[in-house]
Write a structure and sequence with these properties.
Length: 506
Amino acid sequence: MQLNSEQILYHKSKFMAKILTNREDNYSQWYNDLVIKAELADNSAVRGCMVIKPYGYAIWEKIQAILDKRFKETGHQNAYFPLFIPKSFFSKEASHVAGFAKECAVVTHYRLKNSPDGKGIVVDEDAKLEEELIVRPTSETIIWDTYRTWIQSYRDLPLLINQWANVVRWEMRTRLFLRTAEFLWQEGHTAHATEAEAQAEAALMLEVYAEFLETHMAIPVWKGVKSPNERFAGAVETYCIEALMQDGKALQAGTSHFLGQNFAKAFDVKFVNKENKQEYVWATSWGVSTRLMGALIMAHSDNNGLVLPPKLAPIQVVIVPIFKSDEQFASVNEKALYIKKQLETKGISVKYDNRDTQKPGFKFAEHEFKGVPVRIAIGPRDVEENTVEVARRDTLEKAIYQITDIEIKIEHLLEQIQLNLFNKAMNFRENNTFTVDTWDEFVDTIEHKGGFVLAHWDGTPETEQRIKEMTKATIRLIPLDPKKEEGRCILTGNPSHFRVVFARSY
RNA sequence: CGGGGUAUAGCGCAGUCCGGUUAGCGCACCUGGUUUGGGACCAGGGGGUCGUAGGUUCGAAUCCUACUACCCCGACCA
């Protein structure tokens, strides 16, 4: 019972109200259409800032809930630090300020007044701040300034804090979820007594992110370390997870930084060790943002709309009743409610779409567009035969299920869908990962195939920069445990001992 | 910030070149009826300072000027 593509096309072309640009025709437009028409987010009246709509926010809340639980399981506590950061804090860590200076929003005044010409309101020049405030692009500085007062002794360590917050980076060009001027994220900031402990923390959180993407978002990731060019401003080492989108571009999905003692020194955060000696503390920070929403959308969705992995879908199963007469509705309704109750005993989130203002076909199309993993349709024929029609979003297949043990069958189906999405994404990545040895091959692959390209690099920032200028491809990551392989840099021909991962990226 | 484009009902558009009734159309919305196993149909109805501010003109959605916002492409970045 499979709906073939011609049938789908027929339905779409004849009735379609929500037009989705074809993914193959214009990937960016497809993405934008999807975000807006699936009601995940909208552009707002504020340049570069988005409105996250209830359906999109529900997905973000699921992401938050799962990660928050993992953070707490790994010993972290949530706290909240100010949105505003005194400008002077920023200049304390040289590379940090250099990295963020160009994209900071600055608060200079604290009052408005009626304009002298009587038209509207103007900034009151008399209300100029003594010290200007930066709207946080990230919170290292305010947090480390605070940690100074929290940390005295090795007994205060490790300090394991996370905050869920919004940050602002004044980007020139923005895209819904992928790059917005304001975005939501979590930022972990930890302080440790030893370098090894801090390194272990950075590695642990990278692992938490990788596990989350793979098992919940169904997106396979590469783990690695950033080249100096791509390193976080102020970090000693930046670890990252990179995912491959369906257009062959890479997306950095999360980062975890080993900050060494850079911020401890800049903000004079010392502790007394067991030998009663003063030492600077060792630090990490790590974060993921609403950008994950972009990854989720781009990794799985198709020309019929959004495709959501069951573990993050706000609605996992939608039940659509089909009926003509009131008597039919009564019996269908009874069965539908029974099924809903059964599914809920397994913790499945079910929407019973019993709106009488929309026809079944409309509901099918709508829930399909919004990526609901499983749809159950139940009509008079089903009631008679004790069956339902089950359609899965990932493959668009339909099947008839006996209602007996429906909750077990659907639970199993959801697991299958989750797995299938991961496997599809994994296959895609494998089919779009290329190994090249010459410059011509490299350019050709980046230009015509996209994807991840494994190549030798001489290890210098200059070479990476030149490659970026010539091909727009950057080193997405250096594998954590690179396989030893002697070769020559694709650009300079200098010796190299292992391959790194190149790609064009978001 | 550079290049290009757009702005007319909630959404998508026509009308603008070549100024001239009451600014149209599709979808959506409201009412009534018939319908309901893949985006229903019929009838009736509501909704517009034509992005903003000036200007030209007897008359401006239409011509001119400035401004603003958004989208796409680049440089920058998660």
